[in-house]
C-alpha cells in the first residue's frame, strides 16, 4: 500500500512540476511586458469578427509600443481580474478603459491621460424614464469597477435608486432591455458603440455627459516605472505625428459592422455559428483540454485522498477529512481567484492563468472524488477484508489486491459523472482570463450584441458534449457490471 501511495504522490509531483509553477525571470535587457485588458468593453477593448483583439486601447497600445520600442503580450479578462492581476504582480500593466481616480492612485501609478471621457446614462429604447428623478425606487444595472458604476454609486442616495452589479457589459444591457432594471451608467463612447451595433438602448444625456474624467494606463504603485515611462514617451510621439487621432476616429466614426460582421450574419443562429465557427471550435477544444487534464489529475489526487481516508493511521484519516472539507466547502470561483491573484500577491511568485485553472479543478474536483472514493472503499463488504487477512495478507496487501479493485469498480459511474461536472465547471475559469467556451461566447456577444442567439449556441454545444459523455457513462457502467 505504501508503494502505491508513493507512486501516486510521485505522479502528482511530476505533473505539477510540468505545469510550470515556478516563475521564470525575464532577462532585464528584454523590453517585453505582460499587459492585461478588459475583454468586453467595446469600443475600447473587444474582439473583432476575425477573433482578433482590437479597440481604441489595443490599437493605441500597439502604436505606442512601436514608437517607444517595447514588445508586449496582452491577456484579456474581466475588468476586476485585469486590475487585480497588476496589483498582485501577475501582470506588468493594464489598459482597460480605466478612469484615473484618487482611490486607484493609492494602488496604481498611472500614465499621462490618453483619453478624456464622460459618463452617460441609458434606458431601454421605449422607456418612460427620462430624468434621474424618475429613477427613484427603481433598480440600475452597473458593470463592476467602471467609472459609470462609481458615478452611479455617488448619486444613488440622492436619487433613491437601487443597484445590481454585473461583470460584463452585455449582461448589463440585457438586464435593462429585459426590464429587470431601468437604466445603466457607462462611458459615453461605450454606450454609443453598443447602440450603433443594434442594442435597443437610448442615451439620455448624449450632449451633456457627467463627471468627465481621464483614462490612463496603469502599473502597480512603485513598480514597472520603465514601462510607464515608455508608455508616456510613445503616447507623446503618436499624438504628435497624428496616429493617435487616426486610431480614435477609426472606432468612433466607423460602422459597427466593420468589426462585427454583416447584419445578415448576426441575425440568425446559423449565420453566427458559421461566422464564428473557428472561435467556437477553439473554445470547445480548450474546454475539453481543461476537462481531460483536470479530471485525470483530480482522479489521482482524489484517489490519494480516498486511500488516506480509509487508512489505519488516524492522522492520515484526519488529514484526508480536513482537505476534503476545505476544498469541497470553498466555492470554485473563490478558489480560482485565491490561486491566481491571492497567492501571487503574498508570495510574489507568478502563476499562469492556465496553471491556476488546472489547480482549481484538481483541488475542487479532487475533493469530491476523494469523498466518493472513500465511500466506495467503505462500501465493500467487511467480510472481504477479513477473508483476505485470514489468507495471510497484510492490511496494505488486502487493500491493494482486494478492497481497492472492488471499490474502483463500484465507483466507475461516479467517475464519469464527475467528468461531466468538471466539464461544466470549466466555465467558471473564464473569470481569470482562460479562453474556454463560455468566455468565447462572452467575447462574441460583446462584439455583435446577439446574446440570446450566441448563448443558445453555447448551450447546445455543452448539451451535445454532455449527452455524449452520458451515453459513454451508461456504456461503461453496463460493461463493468456485465
Name its key features.
single chain, 482 residues, alpha/beta, MetI-like fold, D-Maltodextrin-Binding Protein, domain 2, 3 domains, six-stranded mixed beta sheet, three-stranded parallel beta sheet, 60% helix, 12% strand, elongated
Write up this protein.
- This protein has 482 residues and is an alpha/beta fold.
- It contains 20 helices and 13 strands.
- The strands form four sheets. Strands 7, 8, 9, 10, 11 and 12 form a six-stranded mixed sheet that branches. It has a three-stranded parallel sheet with strand order 4-1-5. A two-stranded antiparallel ribbon has the order 2-3.
- The two termini are 28 Å apart.
Instruction: Look at the structure and give the CATH class of the largest domain.
Output: Mainly Alpha
Total domain modules: 3
Query: How many helices?
Result: 20
* CATH superfamily label of the largest domain: MetI-like
> Architecture of the largest domain, according to CATH?
Orthogonal Bundle
**Content-based structural category:** alpha/beta
Mean pLDDT: 86
Number of strands: 13
Membrane topology: Multi-pass membrane protein
Domain ABC transmembrane type-1: 284-473
Signal peptide: 1-28
Protein name: ABC transporter substrate-binding protein/permease
Amino acid at each position: 500500500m505504501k508503494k502505491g501511495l508513493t507512486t501516486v504522490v510521485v505522479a502528482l509531483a511530476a505533473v505539477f512540476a510540468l505545469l510550470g509553477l515556478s516563475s521564470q525571470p525575464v532577462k532585464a535587457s528584454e523590453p517585453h511586458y505582460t499587459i492585461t485588458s478588459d475583454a468586453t468593453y467595446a469600443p475600447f477593448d473587444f474582439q473583432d469578427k476575425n477573433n482578433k483583439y482590437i479597440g481604441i486601447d489595443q490599437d493605441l497600445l500597439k502604436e505606442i509600443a512601436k514608437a517607444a520600442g517595447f514588445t508586449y503580450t496582452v491577456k484579456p479578462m474581466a475588468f476586476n481580474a485585469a486590475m487585480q492581476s497588476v496589483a498582485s504582480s501577475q501582470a506588468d500593466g493594464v489598459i482597460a478603459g480605466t478612469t484615473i481616480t484618487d482611490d486607484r492612485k493609492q494602488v496604481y501609478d498611472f500614465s499621462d491621460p490618453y483619453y478624456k471621457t464622460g459618463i452617460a446614462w441609458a434606458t431601454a429604447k421605449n422607456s418612460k424614464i427620462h430624468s434621474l428623478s424618475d429613477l427613484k425606487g427603481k433598480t440600475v444595472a452597473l458593470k463592476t469597477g467602471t467609472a459609470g458604476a462609481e458615478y452611479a454609486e455617488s448619486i444613488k442616495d440622492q436619487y433613491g435608486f437601487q443597484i445590481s452589479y454585473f461583470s460584463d457589459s452585455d449582461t448589463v444591457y440585457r438586464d435593462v432591455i429585459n426590464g429587470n432594471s431601468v437604466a445603466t451608467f457607462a462611458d459615453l463612447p461605450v454606450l454609443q458603440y453598443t447602440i450603433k451595433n443594434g442594442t435597443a438602448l437610448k442615451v439620455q444625456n448624449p450632449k451633456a455627459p457627467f463627471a468627465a474624467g481621464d483614462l490612463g494606463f496603469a502599473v502597480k504603485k512603485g513598480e514597472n516605472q520603465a514601462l510607464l515611462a515608455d508608455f508616456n514617451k510613445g503616447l507623446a510621439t503618436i499624438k504628435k505625428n497624428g496616429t493617435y487621432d487616426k486610431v480614435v476616429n477609426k472606432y468612433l466614426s466607423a460602422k459597427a459592422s466593420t468589426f462585427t460582421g454583416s447584419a445578415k450574419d448576426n441575425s440568425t443562429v446559423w449565420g453566427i455559428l458559421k461566422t464564428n465557427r473557428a472561435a467556437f471550435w477553439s473554445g470547445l477544444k480548450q474546454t475539453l483540454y481543461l476537462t481531460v487534464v483536470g479530471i485525470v489529475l483530480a482522479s489521482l489526487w482524489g484517489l490519494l485522498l480516498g486511500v488516506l481516508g480509509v487508512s489505519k493511521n488516524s492522522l492520515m484519516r484526519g488529514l484526508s477529512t480536513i482537505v476534503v472539507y476545505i476544498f469541497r466547502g470553498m466555492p470554485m470561483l473563490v478558489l480560482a481567484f485565491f490561486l491566481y491573484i491571492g497567492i501571487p500577491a503574498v508570495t510574489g511568485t507568478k502563476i499562469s492563468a492556465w496553471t491556476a485553472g488546472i489547480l482549481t479543478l484538481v483541488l475542487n474536483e479532487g475533493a469530491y472524488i476523494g469523498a466518493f472514493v472513500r465511500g466506495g472503499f467503505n462500501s465493500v463488504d467487511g467480510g472481504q477484508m477479513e477473508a483476505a487477512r485470514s489468507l495471510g495478507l497484510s492490511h496494505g496487501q488486502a487493500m491493494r489486491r482486494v478492497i481497492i479493485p472492488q471499490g474502483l469498480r463500484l465507483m466507475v459511474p461516479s467517475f464519469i459523472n464527475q467528468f461531466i461536472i468538471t466539464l461544466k465547471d470549466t466555465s467558471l475559469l473564464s473569470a481569470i482570463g482562460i479562453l474556454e467556451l463560455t468566455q468565447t461566447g462572452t467575447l462574441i456577444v460583446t462584439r455583435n450584441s446577439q446574446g440570446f442567439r450566441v448563448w443558445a449556441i453555447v448551450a447546445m454545444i455543452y448539451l451535445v458534449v454532455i449527452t455524449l459523455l452520458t451515453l459513454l457513462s451508461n456504456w461503461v457502467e453496463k460493461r463493468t457490471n456485465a
